Amino acid sequence: MEYSVQSATGLATRIRRGNIAPTALIDAVLDRITRRNERTNAFVEIATDDARARARFIESELTAGRSVGPLAGVPVALKESASAKRGMQRTMGSIPFRGSVSETDSTFVSRLESAGAVVVGTTNTPEMDHKGTTDNPLVGPTLNPFDRSRNAGGSSGGSAAAVADGLVPIAHGKDAGGSLRIPAAWSGVYAFKPTFRRVPNVTRPDGFADELGIRSSHGPITRSVEDAALVLDVIGGHHPRDPASVPVESESFRDAVTQPIDGYSIAYTPDFGTFPVETAVRSVVDDALDAFTRAGATVERVEMEIGYSHSELTDAWLALVGANLAAFAEWLAEHDGIDLLGDHRETLSDGIISLIESGQAMSATEYCHQHVVRTAVHDAFEDVFETHDLLVSPTVCCSPVENATDESTSGPKTVDGVAVDPRIGWCQTFLCNFTGHPAASIPAGIDTDGLPVGLQLIGQRFDDAGVFSASGAIERQLSWPTP
């Protein structure tokens, strides 16, 4: 049985029917990961014993005639830096946290396992998720499955590569600036960032940690739209310990995938009025727009006016991330005795040091001003949604970059002749993290170098179902690339 080309939905159905034994599936998955992981460096820890024990438990439940949930026996990978799984390491790709082990399970991990999923390991990320590429001083870069001299993207790069290379059908990621969508675009797979707090995140001691300017979201990376919708059906919904989580929807996101988009009005912007975009990327996305028309929607190019330049928008995102990292560093020093910039400065990447120091130097007034920038982005989106159902764009502005040889891979310094910040300035994705709108990246096609290009779909807040419907319609129209 070649599981690597099958969907999670199909695998779960076959397991429930008794056509596949969970133990046999997990053995095959673990074997493939062991044989192939060095191709991409997607996994950083493999949960061999726990995964096999979990598969045996699910098999015994099925034998006893008990329900095991919609993800019955399906292997799942977790983004190491953004998930807690009891007994597994959480190093965040950073030397000061080498050997750190989680003592609890994240809320979404508990929900995945309650639905029958089997966690098989954790995936690679950049140090503390601070950039849109995956490379770190502990384990190095994650290689792009389409061209291993290039990067898989980040910060959920290990998860995207694991899915693209057929190691698992579902991988978890967390998106604070495009960390789901960027690697999905570069690795030729699908990713979904839900409306802010559609998926609860119980953080302590600060229960409001993800509401401090950057609206981050947990979400799935998959090889099919239906699989992503199934995951959101499982992990979404209110949690009383998350002060920002939203109520459970009565509708099934999986049902939304098959809904037609006849009559949808699609707004298209190649650059949000300010981002530089490579000609090769723009050309692939332009061609993919015909798929919306074939699916019954209308597409109109719109000229967006956010009121801030590309560099001002990028600087605002970096300022907010820097403030959050500075607060994190101060907490570690005061409560855990870990002085990042003192005792561990020589082990940190230059990008992390720069962000922490910028956050330390920022005044409360300067921090609050960034919310004015966020408001401008929100209003620009809502101007579009007054007359359109969805807004689409290229996911990122350039093709995958070459890997560095010293664990320092970053994005490009220029795009289409325009200077950009190599950490995030080449990604149009972070605008949705200012606002909390749902967004997906769907494979749009292949550029002239044979590398994947992603198309970003942005929906109105809380219209995650609409994004899934449009994603499903495009999936039925386009032929998705494979490595």
Q: What is the topological layout?
A:
Elements: H1 8-16, H2 22-40, E1 43-46, H3 48-63, E2 75-79, H4 107-114, E3 118-123, E4 143-144, E5 147-151, H5 157-164, E6 170-175, H6 181-187, E7 190-193, E8 217-222, H7 225-235, H8 253-256, E9 265-268, H9 279-288, H10 290-294, E10 298-301, H11 310-336, H12 350-361, H13 364-385, E11 390-394, E12 414-415, E13 418-419, H14 431-435, E14 439-446, E15 452-459, H15 464-477
Helix pairs in contact: 2-3, 5-6, 11-12, 11-13
What does this structure look like?
- This protein is of the alpha/beta class.
- The chain has a single domain (3-477), classed as Amidase signature (AS) enzymes.
- Helix content is 37%, strand content 15%.
- Strands 1-3-2-6-8-7-14-15-11-9-10 form an eleven-stranded mixed beta sheet. A two-stranded antiparallel ribbon has the order 4-5.
- Helix 2 (22-40) packs antiparallel against helix 3 (48-63) and helix 5 (157-164) runs parallel beside helix 6.
- The model has no long low-confidence stretch (mean pLDDT 96).
